[in-house]
Amino acid sequence: MQDKLTLMIPGPTPVPETVLQALGRHPIGHRSAEFQKIVKRTTEQLQWLHQTSNDVLVITGSGTAAMEAGIINVLSKGDKVLCGDNGKFGERWVKVAKAYGLEVQVIKAEWGQPLDPEAFRAALEADTAKEIRAVIVTHSETSTGVINDLQTIASYGQAHGTALTIADCVTSLGATDVPMDRWGVDVIGSGSQKGYMMPPGLAFVAMSEKAWEASKRSDLPKFYLDLSKYRKSAADNSNPFTPGINLYFALEAALDMMQKEGLEAIFARHARHRAAAQAGMEAMGLPLYAAKGHGSPAITAVAPEGIDAEALRKKVKERFDILLAGGQDHLKGKVFRIGHLGFVCDRDVLTAVAAIEATLQELGLGKGTTGAGVAAAAAALAP
Amino acid sequence: MQDKLTLMIPGPTPVPETVLQALGRHPIGHRSAEFQKIVKRTTEQLQWLHQTSNDVLVITGSGTAAMEAGIINVLSKGDKVLCGDNGKFGERWVKVAKAYGLEVQVIKAEWGQPLDPEAFRAALEADTAKEIRAVIVTHSETSTGVINDLQTIASYGQAHGTALTIADCVTSLGATDVPMDRWGVDVIGSGSQKGYMMPPGLAFVAMSEKAWEASKRSDLPKFYLDLSKYRKSAADNSNPFTPGINLYFALEAALDMMQKEGLEAIFARHARHRAAAQAGMEAMGLPLYAAKGHGSPAITAVAPEGIDAEALRKKVKERFDILLAGGQDHLKGKVFRIGHLGFVCDRDVLTAVAAIEATLQELGLGKGTTGAGVAAAAAALAP
Predict the structure, then answer these.
(1) CA-to-CA dists, residue B370 to A157, B283, B299, B362, angstroms
(2) Residue A321's closest chain B neighbor by CA?
(3) CB spacing of A99 vs B244 below 8 angstroms
């Protein structure tokens, strides 16, 4: 049916009507006093979301642009960095670092497993010469549905003294607690089509004073992603380059809604949806892909043994107009992922579980008692 | 009055209702077959607009991102480039080139004057060692309202053989004839909030085969702006990073409208509006800033002698809700600019002239016969 699509992928995520209406307003001049007000307001809202007094800068681009900006503004050619890699996005930051000639020490974990904070601690403690300039870590690994222990890893970065912690919080910010200042994270990158409940197009980089200090010696070439230009303009509630003006309208509307709901309620909602998605899948006999206790509050990856995950995903779309995400790279066909990030309510998660259960039943692939998935999800959602 | 603002600045430009409605649709997955259809369709439309069979790639970002991508993908550190500079955007490309360690030979003209193509010819002919790798030129210089002779400059680049022509067509594309293939332009950068009749957020880079050939030896670091990634994804009607999905909806709607109008009609409309704006200003005794015969079809810069241009501009906004652009840098207070680019009809230009004339009259600053500006503009608009 036309216009019936429900997004249950980890981005783009569903967008509230209020936000879409803001998006569809006629643009105004980006050098006007009226727009400066929006920049000022949204900057304060972004600081609230990041739980920080640091600068939070807005780039028109994707989450990758934000992360690249975070990396290339605080480092110099040949700098040594530790980079966590337990999924597609961890891999990506290794590639970005290498593209700019950084010396990358990769700390790996198998896909589906969390990064081991102790591996970071050991590498940082062994670095008595203080050559490690940054630790790059993905908080919520979108490809596997694993949440890494950013808090602990950041604490080891802090203890090291020289190393900055640069965190990909693209699918964690707005879904779970990321208190930037309290955890001592120096750089956070995120993107609008995730917890922000907005369409894609804006990306966000928060920078600590320590990160700005490091940026002074950065010699990597950049222009559009040169954050010093964004900081200078932000002081005047402006942008160095023409920003996505309509996306700013949407940003203000979405952050308004988030502030009304409150951080605690938002985090509790995502935790509840993780519990419901996990319980639902397990009750249906569908194994979770992420290691137990390390599932992301934003996304649940499922590895249905003996079932073509891609065929199941497509059937759910065809029958119920619910778009689930497939597996990436070597997980294609082996894994499907349920996005429960952003503008998602209990009904959406219950519905996704019900649709998956009904599809398995239609395909004659249901294991255990039919209805068990929905029952388990409903129990997890109950107040 | 609320919601009465009319944009007559060189970006963002007015956006048709149809395009805003497309923008406000709920996003779909960017890895879906439905989105691939949109990428395929808009790519063909973009090729039509660029009059090219070359790749035209879409970046989520500003026009500066597109130009930076065009420059850093085809050049290497230490490469010699010729860069035209007769305004703020010419200046910017010099800065981008220098930020990446290119050796820049600047060909300057005073602000308000066009670049002299003969200066490019002389420099290129003198380069018998074929060390010049690229000529960077701004077609329509937004800061001064001057159109440079891209066609002739590109022909000298072609005659040189090695040098690529990289053109900033941000405010010329969709306003005047830019036949990429026929003129032999190798790289064209543009942005959505200009002739495209869209809000800002998408940027476009067209690349000739010669440019792709040159890209193979490029050693400048990049990731988000690495066009080889975009080309690879484009072959699959996709994007390497999550694109501005809703902006794509708007792009398709806007290009539909442009195709219905037709290139010749679009160019004739912009030429007519340039003539009307120029005639109206001159009839009011307001001197044009761009040298005679070199005014851009997208924007008319006016230097009202003895009048505070900024005060006039603000008054027009206050009284009539028409937003004109001010002067940039040293032109602040000395120049105002009328944008007549994109979704602008005869009525809009007539209205802008009338509003400026009425404001001068209210301020007691009118020169010559009141009504002369509108009469001259009307004559220029008459079929």
Answers:
(1) 71, 10, 24, 11
(2) B28
(3) no
